[in-house]
Write a structure and sequence with these properties.
- There is one protein chain.
- The chain has one domain: Ribonuclease H-like superfamily/Ribonuclease H (Nucleotidyltransferase, domain 5, 2-Layer Sandwich), CATH 3.30.420.
- It is built from six helices and five strands; from the N terminus they run αβββαβαβααα.
- The chain has helices spanning about 5-15, 85-95, 115-125, 145-155, 160-175, 180-185, and strands at about 20-30, 55-65, 70-80, 100-105, 125-130.
């Protein structure tokens, strides 16, 4: 799908009273992401942490209301990798919260394809799935969600998965409460968004 096509979809969605939702998945490890920080000269900061590869997987979606007046953030956490079952559960979660038509834009990853996904679309005619072009994460506004969340968690040292999950949830809830930050996630893409009317 080309960028022009998505811009056209955006306009058609508004006319049809449809929500656009950008969806993506990511993982958060107990091994913390490291970012530059401040320290006294000559005293390199040392970060001690548990070397365990346990992680929490998250699927999220930024929704754009039909008239571009409101943005929403929906997410679910899982203790394992996101598969087709979790993707279906998340789509049902969106349908419970969003009225009218729902147009989902996501990549062509394995969890986004298969019999369960096709059955879901057959059962709910107001759900429409569109694949983003391959190798084009810069077109998915939901990528900004991970940049924000992982930036908040940088240089931290959670003791266990429970603590890590709590930090992830708090970070995403904070983002969900900020229309400005959600707009920033979409505006950093290469899509022609305009939120001057919001």
């Amino acid at each position: 799908m080309e960028t022009r096509g998505m811009a056209s979809d955006k306009k058609n969605a508004a006319r049809l009273g449809a929500h656009l939702v950008f969806i993506d998945e990511s993982g958060f490890l107990l091994i913390p992401p490291v970012r530059k920080t401040w320290a006294p000269r000559g005293q390199t900061p040392i970060q001690r942490h548990h070397y365990r590869r346990d992680k929490v997987s998250v699927i999220s979606g930024i929704s754009i209301s039909p008239q571009l007046h409101h943005l929403g953030l929906y997410f679910q956490c899982h203790p394992k990798n996101i598969q087709q079952t979790e993707a279906c559960d998340f789509l049902l979660h969106l349908l419970r919260h969003l009225r009218r038509q729902v147009i989902v834009l996501w990549d062509n990853a394995r969890p986004h394809k298969g019999e369960s996904i096709r059955e879901l679309c057959h059962r709910y005619h107001r759900l429409h799935l569109e694949a983003l072009p391959p190798y084009a994460p810069e077109l998915n506004g939901d990528e900004g969600v991970w940049k924000h969340a992982k930036g908040n968690l940088a240089n931290g040292r959670p003791d266990d998965l429970e603590e890590l999950t709590a930090h992830v949830i708090n970070s995403l809830r904070e983002l969900a409460c900020s229309q400005t930050k959600l707009r920033g996630c979409l505006l950093q893409t290469k899509l022609p968004f305009s939120f001057s009317s919001c």
